[in-house]
UniProtKB/TrEMBL annotation:
EC id: 6.3.4.5
Pathway: Amino-acid biosynthesis; L-arginine biosynthesis; L-arginine from L-ornithine and carbamoyl phosphate: step 2/3
Alphabetical GO biological process terms: argininosuccinate metabolic process; L-arginine biosynthetic process; urea cycle
Residue positions binding ATP: A8, Y9, S10, G11, G12, L13, D14, T15, S16, G116
Binding site for L-citrulline: Y86, S91, N122, R126, S174, E256, Y268
Catalytic reaction(s) noted: L-citrulline + L-aspartate + ATP = 2-(N(omega)-L-arginino)succinate + AMP + diphosphate + H(+)
GO molecular function: argininosuccinate synthase activity; ATP binding
Protein name as it appears in the record: Argininosuccinate synthase
Chief location: cytoplasm
């Protein structure tokens, strides 16, 4: 009896070739598993493509709500941005897919799971660490690390084996997309001096120029409405991707530090992610106490590193998520964002839990700050430095 393997299947070049390669070269029965995390596309086409490539079965799993509420939202609570630039687009979807790989392997009695990641990418780490955390007994196969194909070789292999694909040699981009954004790499962009080709962008093609505004409502850190219209989180992200993207906002062109020790030029489109993080951060500015806000910012950096490095299923990430959720108990209110060509910016924020006290902050006649207290506070605050200066620096 042949062994079964569950392949994380995107419908792209590498995973389509992997279906045939696993069956032909290693005699596996291949179950293709496609997880919908908001990447769009026709999953019936993907299903037929997997079957045409040789899969014995195809599982299509709608995980959009799970992805948004169980993975994106905790990351929004943390204002998660790797290296203060990247809103963890692909990093966030990998633990969701790993979870469903393990569950599908159990359903089909498979002895192994597979992914289509390269040997120098981050995603191999995210998949394999996640899988081993969830089921250490599963064998993991990484065809792209083994077969030694260049991208052109994979295209040739697909053509020789009648595998329907969408990649071509003149547009050899690797694209990964989900609710939280879109990642593009390879091709001309491997030269960090070369500007990204204009045709790589889809979410941030500017179609609007008239300035406008959007009001986002938050309840305990969670976005719940746009312009006072209640919506679920998936719909909020979808709508803001369209709205912000239509102004050309949301592009990131960066050279990032991969977990495997190399620098990589990456281009992202993440209009909703960047806009929501901006709005959420602005609301925290008026609702978080100073020391809590400062410590949270430090831990946000660590939280983002854990996600980027594939450690979603780790005790530290879980502990940090518990802390981040605690900080959100008063992060409720509204943030107004201004929209202009290629720009989204905060233009207002308000909350019934705001720590901004007008009578303490104002310099007008309503000023309630006790100025007479300041002299003693400042003297005691600087007493250590004053003593050091008097006794050592200016001792003579």
């Amino acid at each position: 009896m042949k062994k079964r393997i569950v392949l994380a299947y995107s419908g792209g070049l590498d995973t389509s070739v992997a279906v045939k390669w696993l069956a032909k070269e290693h005699d596996y029965e291949v179950v293709a598993m496609a997880v919908d995390v908001g990447q769009g596309g026709d999953f019936e086409v993907i299903r037929h493509r997997a079957i045409a490539a040789g899969a014995i079965a195809v599982e299509v799993i709608d995980a959009r709500s799970q992805f948004a509420n169980d993975f994106v939202l905790p990351t929004l609570f943390a204002n998660g941005m790797y290296e203060n630039k990247y809103p963890l687009v692909s990093s966030l979807s990998r633990p969701v897919i790993a979870h469903h790989l393990v569950e599908t392997a159990k359903k089909y009695d498979a002895v192994a799971v597979a992914h289509g990641c390269t040997g120098k990418g981050n995603d191999q780490v995210r998949f394999e660490v996640g899988i081993r955390a969830l089921n250490p007994k599963l064998e993991i196969v990484a065809p792209v690390r083994v077969w030694g194909f260049s991208r052109a070789d994979s295209i040739d292999y697909a053509e020789a084996n009648s595998i329907p694909i969408v990649a071509t040699k003149d547009k050899p981009y690797s694209i990964d997309q989900n609710l939280w954004g879109r990642a593009i790499e390879c091709g001309e962009m491997e030269d960090p001096w070369a500007p990204p080709p204009s045709d790589v962008y889809e979410m941030t093609v500017r179609t609007k120029s008239e300035p406008s505004e959007v009001v986002i409502t938050f309840d305990k850190g969670k976005p719940t409405a746009i312009d006072h219209k209640p919506m679920d989180l998936v719909d909020i992200i979808d709508e803001l991707n369209v709205t912000f993207g239509s102004y050309g906002f949301g592009r990131i062109d960066m050279v990032e530090n991969r977990r495997v020790g190399i620098k990589s030029r990456e281009v992202y489109e993440a209009p909703a992610a960047l806009g929501l993080i901006m709005a959420h951060d602005a609301l925290e500015d008026i609702t978080l106490e100073r020391d809590l806000a400062h410590e949270k910012a430090k831990l946000s950096h660590r939280f983002s590193e854990l996600l980027y490095d594939g450690l979603w299923y780790s005790p530290l990430r879980e502990g940090l998520s518990n802390f981040m959720e605690y900080t959100q108990q008063y992060v409720s209110g509204e943030v107004r964002l201004g929209l202009e060509p290629n720009r989204v910016f905060v233009s207002g924020r308000r909350s019934e839990y705001s720590l901004y006290d007008y009578e303490l902050a104002t310099y007008e006649k309503e000023d309630a700050f006790r100025h007479s207290d300041a002299e003693g506070f400042v003297r005691i605050w600087g007493l250590g430095v004053e003593t050091w200066s008097r006794k050592q620096v200016n001792h003579d």
